[in-house]
Amino acid sequence: MDFDLTDEQQLIRSTAREFTEKEIVERAKQNARNHHFDLELVAMLAQQGYLGAIVPREYGGAGLDYLSYGLVVEEIGRGCSSVRTVISVQTSLVCSAILRWGTEEQKHRYLPRLCSGEWLGCFGLTEPDSGSDAAKQRTRARRTDSGWVINGAKMWISMGDYARVALIFAQTDPELGHRGLGCFLVDTDQPGFQPSPIEHKMGLHASDTASIALEDVEVGENDLLGEIGDGFKVAMSSLDSGRYSVAAGCVGICQGCVEESVAYATEREQFDRPIASFQLVQAMIADMVLKTDASRMLVWRAGFLKDRGRPNTVETSIAKLHATEAAVWCSNTAIQVHGGAGYVDDHPVERYFRDVRVTTLYEGTSQIQQLIIGRAMTGVNALVPS
């Protein structure tokens, strides 16, 4: 693997950093304070090509490789995890699923609208009683003469209140288990699709999170993504892409913690000298740098494999596990470096700490990543009852 970025990749990275500094950083604090989902900023993301970064140009995307996409997400994640979430959901979960599993008609109908920001999408997999055990869907899809009718409920759905199209996973025949799962492209503009905002979250205050009730939601015959029985594979392939973007965003948080801690430590004085001169402060910053660089290299390796079409599920899980846990540690340590100043939102490390905690939960918990890695190493699937 070549660790030298191409000229194009360096330009993509610097452009994303400039955009983050100019448009995101200042908005992030106020949006978090006001619990504001910033549709104006979402439109800016679309103009930059970030809502369909990995989608080929023929479908309205930017046509970026995964490594370049990871560079963009890292920079956006450094600025604001709520904004990064929009990119991750729209690009990694929704667009990647349609790109891989959709018919040409579905690709041309949905992808240009999603990439342009005309439509937002959401990924309806998690349910009140189904999280890590994604195959146990209680949402049901019943075949009709004209298509399908869906009934059920979804939980913790990012952008569920604003999505124009929802990828809804539903069971068509409980006796078939995961082989009966289907993924449906659902038009949210109908009475039976009823989202409700989830409030009082620990973090991601500027991100929309919803619960969704589905009551006799109608889906056309041509709105099935893939075939019946492909639903579980659709979900897992999307999560491979989603875990990559979460990991890249967490590298951004780690990097932000380093930069903010260095700036504060060189300015803040105690005992007549900057706290950067204290050995224990330097040790904390050094450990942040170590975790940041290790996480970035793991993300780059996963992107390298994705761009070459090679198997990467385990490598992506390794990157997601390491980067998310590293970001939790770095944000906690950055607050320690800042002392009392880090406990209020005058500095972004307070928001980093609150926002990052969920990254060890969604797209597969850290424990699920450990089991994926363990299964690959031992050949034993710990998720299947013995």
Brief overview, please?
This protein is of the alpha+beta class. Helix content is 51%, strand content 15%.
Commentary on this structure:
With 386 residues, the chain is α+β, with helices and mostly antiparallel strands. It is 51% helix and 15% strand. A hairpin with a 3-residue loop joins strand 2 (140-143) and strand 3. Helix 3 crosses helix 6 (231-267). The protein is globular, with a radius of gyration of 21 Å.
Q: How many beta-strand segments?
A: 10
| Strand order, sheet with most strands | 1-4-5-8
Distance between the termini: 40 Å
H and E order: HHHHHEEEEEEEEHEEHHHH
Provide mean pLDDT, rounded. 96
Identify the notable features of this structure and list them briefly.
4-stranded mixed sheet, alpha+beta, 10 helices, 4-stranded antiparallel sheet, 386 residues
Spell out the blueprint of helices and strands:
Layout: H1 7-34, H2 39-48, H3 66-79, H4 81-101, H5 104-115, E1 121-124, E2 140-143, E3 147-158, E4 165-171, E5 181-187, E6 193-197, E7 209-220, E8 224-225, H6 231-267, E9 269-270, E10 273-274, H7 279-307, H8 313-338, H9 349-356, H10 366-378
Parallel strand pairs: 1-4
Antiparallel strand pairs: 2-3, 3-7, 4-5, 5-8, 6-7, 9-10
Helix pairs in contact: 1-3, 3-4, 3-6, 3-7, 4-5, 4-6, 6-7, 6-8, 7-8, 8-9, 8-10
